[in-house]
Amino acid sequence: MTMKILYGAGPQDVKGYDTEQLRAEFLVEDLFRPDSVSFTYTHVDRLILGGAVPVSKTLEFGSGEDIGTSHLLSAREMGIANLGGPGTITVDGQSFDLNNRDVLYVGRGARVLKASSVSAERPARFYMNSVPAGADVPHRLITQAESKPLDLGDARRSNKRQLRMYIHPEVAPSCLLLMGITDLAEGSIWNTMPPHLHERRMEAYCYFDLSEEDRVIHLMGRPEETRHLIVADGNAVLSPAWSIHMGAGTGPYAFVWGMTGENQEYNDVTPVALSELK
Ligand SMILES: O=C(O)C(=O)C[C@H](O)C(=O)CO
Ligand SMILES: [Zn+2]
């Protein structure tokens, strides 16, 4: 298990960043490695992003030694989305089978987690978001069918997409974590249109289901001072409260969005007109 730490950067820092620095602060590239569990701890609202890809063995994790607590989830909750083939997550002996696009909510206090795949030919690809939690909420599997869909966008504007809420007060409660998956409709390329800011929450996007040669051009930054990140399959992007977030793909893609902060009001956002972007 690995744990990388990012300390977070503000809009003034980003003004002087070159591509390498921007990517080092805002892009997480090494989440999904065969038979490994990789975590990145960001001081942006203390979100931990993780990836686990069990291929030839069961992967065990949950120790808190890298973050100074007895267990990783002693004071945290976690969402685990399966972006790959069928697999199983066991939480302190309780097993949950996750198909592609199912999400498991793991409540505070979990100690030992195990991740396994049904088949090494099509391994599970578990993507994790964990945030500090102030209460115990029961573990719960949310299948894709149980998630709440929202149809957004317009094919004529190349931004038709379906957003599914999984960890959300109307679907499955948590303390402060929100998590969902957005799938672009065939032929649409733009996500998160119009772009927005949410002063009371940070967000992380993990782009997946891209082909090896395709990329998402992710836009970030203050509306009047945008930057871009060129993102490949399985890469995650951090979006602090001060940053817009939107992207366009060169081919089909989907993404997991996770949020935490002051509230769980999904609609507590400030849209940014495209005419304001620079
Ligand atoms: O395509 C979209 O629109 C999204 O998925 C938006 C994200 O859910 C988001 O940015 C929530 O604040
Ligand atoms: Zn957002």
Task: Report a brief summary of the structure.
By secondary structure, this protein is mostly beta strands. Helices cover 5% and strands 44% of the residues. A hairpin with a 5-residue loop joins β3 (37-42) and β4 (48-52).
Give the bound compounds: ligand LADIRMRS, zinc ion
Overall geometry? globular
CATH topology: Jelly Rolls
Give the averaged pLDDT, no decimals.
98
Helix content: under 10%
Following the backbone from N to C, one meets helices and strands in this order, namely EHHEEEEEEEEEEEEEEEEEEEEEEE
Text of the CATH class: Mainly Beta
Number of domains: 1
Family: Belongs to the KduI family.
InterPro entries: KduI, KduI/IolB_isomerase, KduI_N, RmlC-like_jellyroll, RmlC_Cupin_sf
Binding site for Zn(2+): 196, 198, 203, 245
Catalytic activity: 5-dehydro-4-deoxy-D-glucuronate = 3-deoxy-D-glycero-2,5-hexodiulosonate
Can you put this structure into words, describing what you see?
This protein is mainly beta. The chain has a single domain (2-276), classed as Sandwich (Jelly Rolls). The protein is built from two helices and 24 strands. The chain has helices at 11-15, 19-26; strands at 2-6, 27-28, 37-42, 48-52, 59-61, 76-82, 87-91, 94-98, 103-106, 113-117, 126-132, 140-142, 148-152, 161-167, 178-184, 190-191, 196-197, 201-208, 216-222, 225-231, 236-239, 244-249, 254-261, 270-271. The strands form five sheets. A seven-stranded mixed β-sheet has the order 1-3-4-11-6-9-12, with no helix packed on it. Strands 2-21-18-23-15-14-13 form a seven-stranded antiparallel β-sheet. A four-stranded antiparallel β-sheet has the order 5-10-7-8, with no helix packed on it. A hairpin with a 2-residue loop joins strand 19 (216-222) and strand 20. The longest helix is centred in the first third of the chain and has 8 residues, at 19-26. The structure holds ligand LADIRMRS and zinc ion. Zinc ion binds at residues 196, 198, 203, 245.
